[in-house]
Amino acid sequence: MNIKITNYLYHGFNNNPDDGILKYTNNPKTLLVLDYIYSNRNMKNITPFSLEDIIAHCGLAVRSGNGNTIDQFKNILHTLHNLKVIEIENLKLTPKQFNKCKLLIDIDRDFFYFNEDDKKKIFDYKHGNESSIDKFKAFLLYCYILSRIRQNTDGTTGVCYPSYSLITKDTGISDPVINKYINFLVKTDLIRVGNAGLFYYSADKNKRVTESSNIYAIFDKHGDWQDKLNDSIKTYKNNHPERIFVKSYKNNNKSENGYIARITYLEKQGKATEKQIEKRDKLLEKKREIDGGENIKFTIKSLLDNPNNSDILLSDIYINQGNINLAEKYSDIEKQLDIIDGETGEFLIDWDYYKWLMINYNSDQHEYYYNCVQKYIREHN
To answer: What string of pLDDT tens digits covers the 381 residues of the chain?
Structure first.
């Protein structure tokens, strides 16, 4: 059975493309509340309900107390009422009390469908160690992809390609864990992901490479998703003529290359200073990362995504590989970021946040990432 949900949940609310109901409720369970209201409404758009029934519909137990299910769902319903998404007959909302609400928004104006069987795939999934997966967030992200596909107007069909920053803005799911939920949706055979690859802007003299946004398609057993991804990658490239897409990238920065050659010559003459050699070596490391056709970000991501490396420091992974130089480099970074308890040796941040940190870390922005770590520790400890 297909269930209709308003796109206003994520975007377009109040005729504002950047405004969504989720920004006000700040709870992924809002999606299932709207599902309940829409699925149980009558011809007059009135839905009979009790708070207890809605909580049970979400597969949760009725619990009282601050932050528990009763308060959570009360807050969601009160917020929907205040936003004039629904009108609740009795705002007291005791758990067993029979109540009614009227759906006030025109859901037929801007909507998407999800299939009830697909929802069950997410909430009934039990294979592997998925204890860290919030099924409500996974379902929220899946429906967001459906919503964005519905909104697509650029000539591609059955796909969408929101950036991680846009996903965070529209769903509230933080950047460091988005990839975890995307991988989960792939594992449950709900979506497939493609990417147009690396590119640099034609106006950029230094040809600095950037990663394209992911392209998402809904999985189907017939394999149509593969054609959709391939066609959309071609369309994506055609729609961005200012971008030069590359399989590998050669650093053509003449200033940097000239400096490397000059300091290497001076070193052979015994005339290069330690500071010059240090700067030359940093440029060489950067050049090797790019000229070798390997973006360090992708390398680190593949290492940390390997299940055999779960909960292992990147520096220790490189030690196990016998790469002492990189082991020392990332050991220094880990110490400078203060992510390890000096007494116990335990992580002060969780594994997913650590992965995000090491994949995206840039020494030029060390202070930013250090502050991110300190903020995370304050909020979670």
So the answer is: 788 899 999 998 988 988 999 999 999 999 999 999 999 999 899 999 999 999 999 888 888 766 688 999 999 999 999 999 999 999 999 999 999 999 998 887 888 888 889 999 999 887 655 557 889 999 999 999 999 987 555 545 689 989 888 999 999 988 778 888 988 898 888 999 888 888 888 888 877 878 788 899 998 888 788 888 888 888 888 988 999 887 544 444 556 667 777 787 777 777 788 888 888 877 776 665 554 434 577 778 878 887 778 888 888 888 877 778 788 888 889 888 988 877 776 778 888 888 888 888 877 778 888 888 888 888 776
Whether residue 115 is contained in a domain is answered as no
Domain count, the chain: 4
Residue 280 lies in a domain: yes
Strand partners, 101: 47, 88
Could you tell me if 211 and 167 lie in one domain?
yes
Residue 195: give the domain boundaries: 136-243
Query: Which helix or strand (DSSP H or E) is residue 340 part of?
Result: none
On whether both 279 and 365 belong to a single domain, the answer is no
Contact 239, 154 (CB under 8 A): yes
Pairing of strands 46-49, 99-103: antiparallel
What is the distance between the alpha carbons of residues 82 and 101, in angstroms, rounded to a whole number?
13
Residues 235 and 322 in one domain: no
Nearest CA to 99 among 58, 59, 144, 46? 46
Element (H, E) at 351: helix 351-360
Question: 237 and 264, same structural domain?
Answer: no
| Tokens encoding 67 | 């932050």
Give the Cα separation of 95 and 69 in Å (integer).
10
Task: State whether 262 and 307 are in the same domain.
Answer: no
Considering only CA atoms, which of 215, 203, 291, 192 is closest in space to residue 242?
203
